[in-house]
Design goal:
363 residues; NaCa_Exmemb; mainly alpha; potassium:proton antiporter activity; single chain; 74% helix; 13 helices; A middle domain of Talin 1; membrane; Ionic transporter y4hA
């Protein structure tokens, strides 16, 4: 254990938390914002390392679940803080952040992971279509229920749910998330394990020796510290982001996109490392699991918080984003169903992700 104190991944999260405590609630000059950015990057890299240690100890798919839930829970706290302090302009922050998380995970992370897997490991990336298809179906259902339906309901004007509709969406989202976790970790765990080129689950016994229980607990604590630092430091730089967005005349939705990009960095790097190591199923677990957690945990929390948050809660997507979401669902299904994907699918997903980012800045 004393050796662990000398490692960079141990003291960087602690330094990041110290910087967070010293800077919280203050107006930050430019050089300090730059320092906060460096600490944010260090905390992200440390979070990825400790997430991999925990994942190696508990195995798949529990490791992916730990990182996805941890990031999402803290992301929810960040969204609530931004909505509480953002006034009327913050009414769409939850929608923009959740939709950005779906597009980043289902297109950005999946596309980049496919790129790494197909270029490094061979011509084809192999995964379990049963587990990935179930996860994708859950993502699509949650996104449609919470982000698409509000644009078409008639009980209230605008793309908003009525109180009863919002309560139904919150309960349905949380229930479906709980059902997915049960299926993923208990009833059909084998569907979410990495597979060989022949489609057989990878035998965990053939892997390197897992860390000890003490090391895993140590990494779990540091993972929580690193993720807390990531979101807290992201909150510190968010005023600079919001100011820059307003100064540049960009849409408010850009704030949600930037926040989601920062918060999902640990999962993105973890997914790329898994793809590089020939565990593309783990990359899909991280991507789809993060999207499911983002909707299944954010919407119920925001629905509850809307009781005391100022302003209205807008969840319905606009026409452009509805088209992107529908196209993402179709393309993702065509990618997942065969259980094998090539470089072409990587290019398709990355193009959709690029279209989302471009149209967010230039609607």
């Amino acid at each position: 254990m004393p050796r662990l104190w000398r490692e960079r991944t141990t003291w960087v999260p602690l330094v990041a938390l110290l910087v967070l405590a010293l800077c919280w609630g203050r107006d930050l000059p430019g050089p300090v914002v730059a320092l906060v950015g460096l600490c944010l990057a260090g905390a992200v890299l440390s979070a990825v390392h400790h997430a991999e240690v925990v994942a190696h100890r508990v195995g798949e798919p529990f490791g992916s679940l730990v990182l996805a839930v941890a990031v999402t829970v803290i992301e929810v706290g960040l969204v609530v803080m931004l909505m509480a302090s953002g006034g009327d302009e913050a009414s769409t922050y939850a929608r923009d952040t959740v939709f950005a998380a779906v597009m980043i995970t289902c297109n950005g992370i999946v596309g980049l992971s496919l790129l790494v897997a197909t270029l490094r490991r061979g011509r084809v990336a192999v995964f379990n279509a049963e587990g990935s298809g179930a996860a994708l179906a859950t993502v699509t259902t949650l996104a449609t229920t919470t982000l698409v339906l509000p644009a078409f309901t008639t009980s209230t004007p605008g793309p908003r749910f009525s109180g009863a509709q919002l309560a139904f969406a919150a309960v349905a989202s949380l229930s479906l998330y709980g059902l997915f976790v049960t299926v993923q970790t208990v009833r059909h765990r084998s569907y979410f394990l990495p597979v060989t080129a022949e489609g057989r689950p990878v035998d965990p016994a053939g892997q390197a020796a897992p860390p000890t229980r003490a090391e895993a607990r140590w990494s779990l604590g540091l993972l929580m510290a690193a993720l807390l630092a990531v979101v807290g430091l992201a909150k510190l730089v968010s005023p600079t982001i919001e100011s820059g967005v307003r100064t540049a005349g960009l849409p408010t939705a850009v704030v949600g996109v930037v926040i989601a990009l920062m918060v999902l960095l640990p999962e993105t790097l973890a997914a790329l490392r898994a793809a590089r190591g020939g565990r593309f199923q783990t990359s899909l677990n991280l991507a789809y699991g993060s999207a499911i957690a983002s909707i299944g945990l954010t919407v119920p929390t925001i629905a509850l918080a809307s009781v005391w948050l100022p302003g209205t809660l807008v969840l319905g997507l606009g026409p452009v984003h509805l088209v992107l979401l529908a196209l993402t669902a179709v393309v993702s299904a065509l990618t997942v169903v065969p259980g094998r994907a090539t470089l072409l699918q990587s290019g398709v997903h990355l193009l959709l992700f690029a279209a989302f980012v471009f149209l967010s800045f230039s609607p």
